[in-house]
Backbone:
């Protein structure tokens, strides 16, 4: 799963509006994967899902996920390392 | 609270080993604040807590927090925007 998400991280380099796509394993529960992403807009994020190769990657990843992937939409206030 | 954490984000620029310190508000629950941080080591992170001004910032923030701050230690696998 991590390998697929790292491949996705390579893919989003070509996506408009993506600044961070950081793949992490939960230190306590290594089967839990976190991806922290920042985008200029939700629209940019949604468009990236149509990039060549992305639907195939998602299809490869979905069977590996136990249950439904969870997501928490956030609003970036600022900080270090954003751009 | 966001303002204090953004001040902390400025402060960690002087800290050894900090690459990301991103302050976010939960889009659904704006009273919930998320900070995504990446460090070269836990030691670097712990040392940053002793930087001049940091204890005072923590003291200012703690009364604003409802209950205990939660944290999820992660292991970075890789991705876009890390360095």
Residues:
């Amino acid at each position: 799963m991590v390998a697929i998400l790292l491949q996705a991280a390579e893919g989003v380099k070509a996506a408009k509006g993506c600044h961070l796509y950081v793949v992490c394993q939960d230190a306590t529960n290594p089967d839990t994967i976190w991806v922290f992403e920042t985008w200029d807009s939700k629209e940019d994020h949604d468009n990236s899902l149509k990039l060549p190769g992305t639907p195939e990657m998602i299809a490869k990843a979905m069977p590996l996920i136990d249950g439904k992937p969870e997501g928490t939409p956030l609003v970036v206030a600022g900080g270090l390392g954003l751009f």
Notes: Chain A has one domain: 2-62.
